[in-house]
Amino acid sequence: MSDSKYLKRTIVKEQIESRFLNETRNLRVYLPPGYNEILSYPVVYCQDGEEFFNFGRIATIANHLILDGNAEPFIIVGVEVDTSVRTQEYAPFGNRFESYTRCFAEEIIPFIEAKYPIRKEASERILAGDSLGGSVSLHLAIRYPGLFQRIISLSGAYYPASQDIIEAQDDLSNLDIFMIVGLQETAYETDHGVHNFVELNRQTRELLLDRGAKVEYAEKDGKHLWGFWQKELPDALMYFLHE
Predict the structure, then answer these.
(1) pTM score above 0.70
(2) For this UniProt entry, which segments traverse the membrane (predicted)?
């Protein structure tokens, strides 16, 4: 199959007016090859939507997975973020966290599902994120268990505030999480200190397993960069979307 077939992508730009955030939020929606409104599709919602499309090349990866016959066709929704307030929205100690999580679950999901033929079961929605995007995806699944069960966590930023929230849960057996972290992420500098992401992810994996979650976990050579995560995206997507 020629490369041009993989590169022909249908991406629709959407905007939603959020009453929780008091602003307009941009979305990117990838529609799979052969998209048909009378069918129904699973969906992947990505935090850092712009980066998943630009640096993660998720649309091209999805085309490969679908056209090569291994993956069920799926829709991708990239939720864009202003990087200057990203930590405030994605971290549980952030002053926009409450508003962002409510916007995501109570505004973005209904908006997308009213407009596109997406299956309504929690098992058909996948949340994906890198770093703080991975941890906010887990927080969304904890806050809205009726909406979300499946998570792709790429080097999740599971700081103590996040671990405390996980530890406070009694039962997370509804969750199925694909976690990966790079072995070169032992001293990564963030906007609030240097963190050992390998250790944070190991600890979080144990917290999740202790509460009954299903966890597919791997540590591989890699840094806290899209160059690492892009290579892992096909396996992460196929974990949930193989036919």
Answers:
(1) yes
(2) none
Q: Which structure tokens are listed for 176? A: 């199925």
Q: Are 18 and 25 in contact (CB under 8 A)?
A: yes
Three-state DSSP class for residue 120: coil
Distances (CA, A) of 228 to 23, 180, 225: 33, 10, 6
By C-alpha distance, which of 94, 89, 92, 95 is closest to 108?
A: 89
In tens, the pLDDT along 136-179 reads 999 999 999 999 999 999 999 999 999 999 999 999 999 999 99
Pick the CATH number of 3-241 from 3.40.50.1580, 3.30.70.260, 3.40.50.1820, 3.40.50.2300: 3.40.50.1820
Whether residue 234 contacts residue 64, with contact meaning beta carbons closer than 8 Å, is answered with yes
Rounded distance between C-alpha atoms, residue 87 and residue 129, angstroms: 13
CA distances to 43, 50, 87, 168, 185 from 146, rounded to whole Å, are: 15, 27, 25, 19, 33
